[in-house]
Amino acid sequence: MTSTVARFDLKLNQEDKNIFAQAAALMGTSMAGFVRAAAKEKARELLDRESRITLSPEDFKAFVESLDAAFTPNSALEAALELARRDVRRV
To answer: Which of 11, 46, 73, 91 has minimal Cβ neighbours within 10 Å of its Cβ?
Structure first.
């Protein structure tokens, strides 16, 4: 398996560079490795958080009630089901 290496350059002020360098030294890694790991962790947290839907207790109750409610197909769905029953053959 081959992996493609992509380059990402970052300009920092001296204070930020010093902070990253100190943190990297504490972690026993390079500054690039520290920044890469920290950015990846933060990105995954953000993506994980943003991929969820958060509902209030009232909204969640309404959602569950709508799922539990009896479903009645509308006329368009009834027509599509009838067409499928008539024309679709199972093998």
So the answer is: 91
